[in-house]
Amino acid sequence: MRIKPFLRRAVWLCLSGICVSTNMALASGLQVSPVSLTLKDKNADGIWLSNEGDNEINAQVRVFQWSQSNFKDNLTASRDLVISPPMLTLRPGQRQLIRVIRLGNPTNSVEESYRLSVNELPQATPKANKLEFVLHYSLPIFIQPKNSVPPEAKLSWGVKRVGNDNFLEVSNQGNSHAQLSGVTYINKQGARREITPGLLGYVLPGSTMRWILAPTTTRIDAGGKLEVMINGQKAVHDL
Q1: Where are the beta strands (DSSP E) in 103-153?
Q2: Which residues form the Pili assembly chaperone N-terminal domain (predicted)?
């Protein structure tokens, strides 16, 4: 039986707001810093891409407007943010600043959300009998509201039954995003049940999101509480 020289399996990881897709393992030398941007009172910022590996890397960078509807994330082509350069080559040990530029002066009263997509491109002439490692990063970018009201997420929580599954449902009526992580349910007797130890996801302003609950956490009764990290700050909310 002939073995194909390349194995390709995508694996998604979400850590601290950054989503990473990699074929097989995190073996590529492509690194990004920082992993998110927030623009306030300025129209430009930057993210560094670096090559920590031993081989030359080609990458493509794109930016998308980020919205949420029907409990899902939606990405559309951005007209308000541009990036430079959109294509680059990094030699081992080299790094490159990617500029993120807001066109025009922000007049938004609600935070605007975007995603910066960084794709490592496969080699044009890959070596035979070698695994191919390529990474995809998706980084959040936020433009805070242009007014005197401080940005704030205003959340409401509930558990919804849909078919045979229970979902944790979170609505955000504030003017800024909420990054949710480290969620634990606490019942009336004080018993604790972990829902997720790491990143749960984001709820953008004016949006509602749902996350399915594992069978071990489906018994969540009214009157309990949720302990959760919201934008890095611990909070407790009633259900």
Answers
A1: 112-121, 135-143
A2: 37-147
Question: What pTM was estimated for this model as a whole?
Answer: 0.83
Which ranges in 131-216 belong to alpha helices (H)? none
Report pLDDT digits (tens) over 72-107: 999 999 988 999 999 999 999 999 999 999 988 777
What is the number of H-type helices and E-type strands within the chain?
0, 19
Class of residue 46 by CB neighbours under 10 A (exposed 0-12, middle 13-18, buried 19+):
middle
Q: What is the pLDDT of residues 26-60, one digit of tens each?
A: 446 899 999 999 998 888 999 999 999 888 999 99
The DSSP output letter for 206 is T
Amino acid at 40: K
Token reading at 31: 């690194």
Q: Fill in the amino acid letter for 76.
A: T
